[in-house]
Each structure stands twice: as structure tokens, then as C-alpha cells.
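Appendix B: complex inputs.
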Amino acid sequence: MQITIDEAKCCGAGQCVLVAPDVFDQRDEDGIVVLLNAAPDAGLHAAVREAATICPAAAIQVRE
Amino acid sequence: MSAPQASRPRIAVVGAAAAGLAAAEGLRRLGWDGEISLVGDEPHPPYDRPPLSKQVLSGTWEPERTALRDADQLAALGLDLRLGTRAVAYDPAHRALTLDDAGRTVLRCAGVIVATGVVPRTLPGGDTAEGLHVLRTLDDALALRERLAVSGRRLAVVGSGVLGAEAAAVARALGHDVTLIGTEDTVMGRVLGPEVGRLLADVHRAHGVTLRTGQAVTGIRREAGRATGAVLADGTVVEADDVLLAVGSVPAVDWLRGPGAEAAGLDLSDGLRCDEYCAAAPGLYGAGDVARWYHPVLGREVRIEHRMNAGEQGLAAARNLLSELDPERFGERRPFTPVPYFWSDQYDMKLQAHGVPAGADRIEVRVLGKDPLRLAALYGTGERATGILALGLPPRQTRSLRALVAVPTPWPEAVTRLTETVGT
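Resulting structure:
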């Protein structure tokens, strides 16, 4: 799994942080998503896919 | 009429925007290896709507950037993708979906997910004229953007909700002469309450938007077939080169009406009525703007026209439909109990709301700064907090306020934690 982030799309909802806190965080200044781990272990894949699906700004892209 | 025999069982997803795409992807990911027909009435592959009133309208994004998936990602889903195709009927008893294509194709389905969204409300009489705009589709946004590409336009925006406020902000930032017309002296006041609504109205005024409040728009003035202004209830006219109608929307359920729907007992009175599993009838699920469902934590029916709900509910509907079709393989159905979320960008402000602020009977607003505007607000109904608004707050504070509405929190405790969180 390879995750990419489009910072310009991110709206800072923080949903990804709630779903997959080991993979995503938010910048303190503006809430923009921070990718902690671009290639997480298989055990985190389901959470990452869910984060990508529910991201309200479609800022998370996942390639498998 | 043709009814091709499907060699594999089929699930049809009607509506090819965020909710429909999330449903189709969810079905595939959860292991559905049958056919998936994704039916969309627009010619474009699935695209995202929030940027339409922001980056697309302002011209900072080209339309391609709104695409939700690229061609390779779509191809990998192995969809029977039917774009530019309208669904015109569904018979729940026979699980037969009729498409308005050349062959009037009837698709036999194991299940159907309805994600047809909403259509913009228009004025009484359904006025149309050149220069009269709505803003729902990519083509709508591009039409208005083309008009705003010429400097010095006068734009009248009818409706001071989220969409109207965003479009007004974009047009002002482009230097146009903007009049925002609303029935109340607020911006987004119906959703966020009068105090926040007045503060937002002040921000728009400070940016040079003319607010015309307290009057409904009764019609569009036109000359030679072209809109030249909005007519207010007292007869005065807001002169304009273009008029944007942003007065809400209605669920796109008309295609579902018919004897089949009646026999199945579908309730289409405000969207497709679904239960807590997003099910409207056996094998029939709803997702996104079009779906009104029973939210067991809120204890009432809701229909949510927010982008995040589209993704979440698309996924939930996919999961529950598969569970209904094959519980042994896909497990039990689960109630859909999200914490709603929406955001809005206006000028340099980003508003974020979690939970349900609309309809609150108590609101606690803490203004943390006026220039730029920073605030936190707590919304409550009965004895508990139901929604929060964060404007210019650090993400950690926003997340801790969200926690107040993620689980039912008594109002006094929520107010105390609001104070602790924002320090005032």
C-alpha cells in the first residue's frame, strides 16, 4: 500500500486522525493532514482505506 | 426493450458522485465479486462537489482536479460504468432497475444502492434565463466561472446559506460587485444560529459584500431573455449581470416514484426514507444527500447534505447490503451512527462543524477574536450537546470539542468543557 496526500485539498477535518492515528496527524497551525507513515503494515490497511473513503475533501489517495 | 441475462449477480449503484463511488468501492473492497453497475446521469466520471463553489469557481483549480479517481483507479474496480445515463424506474418487488438509455435497459439486481443526491431548488415557476445560475454540477460551476472571468460583473446571490456565502466570498475576492440576498440579517444563521450568523454577516460586509436582508426574492427580472436582476418582495430590484440561486435543494427521488415503490411502501416524502441500517426495503439502500435515515444515537430521522456523510454512508450502505445478501460471509448489519461534519471556506476563514448545530434550542458562543474572526460555539437540544462549531481553532481543540458530541454529553458538562478547552 502506498498513500499520497494532497495538502491543497485537505480541509483539516481530522477524520483520518480519528480512524488511523498511527498513520495520520494534523499540523498544529492549520490542521492540514500530516502523513506519519506512507507505507503502513497490513494490519493498518483497512483503517487507511476507510480514512481515504470518508475524507470529506478526497485528499487521501491509496494505491495497492 | 432488452433484458440481458447477467452471468453474475449484480448490484446497481444509482448516482455516480461521492456517495455512489464510495458505495461501489466499498462493495468491491468488502469482497463483492459480482457485477457492479454504477449509473450516473452526468457525462463526467465521479468528481467532488465541495471545490465547485471554492477552487473551481475562483479559477484556481482546473476541473480535472475535482476527479475523485483517475482512469486506472476506476478501471481497477471492474465496474459496469454507465455515465450519461439516467435511472427512470425501480421495482423493489422484482429488483428491476430501468435505465433511460436507447434500449430502455432493465437490469435485474441482487441489490440497489440509491445515491442520486439532490437537485437545486429554483424559484416558484421554475424560472430559467440566461445569466440565471444554480451551482450543483461541474457544468454549473464552469458556466458561472466563465461569467466571473470578465472583471467588474455585478452578481446577485439569492440565499445566504453555506453555498451562497462561499460563492459570494469567491466573487468578492475576484473583485466583482456582490449582493447577498437573504431573508434574515445573518449569513448561515439558520444552521449556526443568529449570533454566529450576524458575526459572519459582518465579515462579508467588511469584505465589501452588500447584504440585502429581510426579504424573499419573488422573481427574476429579465430583458431579452437575459437575467438582469432579482426582484424582492417589496418590488425593488437588485440589479445584476448574473443571478445565482442558492436557496437549497430537493432530494432526487422522483425517478423512484411509481406503482412498484408504492407496493413496497417506500416513503419518498423528504428523500428516500431508510432505517438505521440505511435500508429502504429489502435489497434497497440509500446513501448520501438523498437518504433520510433513522439515526439511533440522535434518536430521530436525519438527512444530511454534507460531503463527509456521502463517503461514510456510501460505505455503510454497501456493507449492510452485502450483510443482508449473505450474512454468513459478510457478517451482521450495523446501524449507521455517524457524527456529522461539514466545513466551509470563506475569505481566509475556515468554519468546521461537528455534530448537528441546526435546530439547537441553546447555543453558547465564545468569541476569541474579531479580526480575524475566531470563535467556538456549542449547540444543544434538550439536555445535551448536539453540535460544535470551530472557527480559527487549533486542531487539537477542535477534536476535543468534537468529543463532546461524539458521545451524548449533558449540557452543563459540555459548557464546562468548552470553557476549559478554549480558556474563556
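The longest helix of chain B spans residues 307-325.
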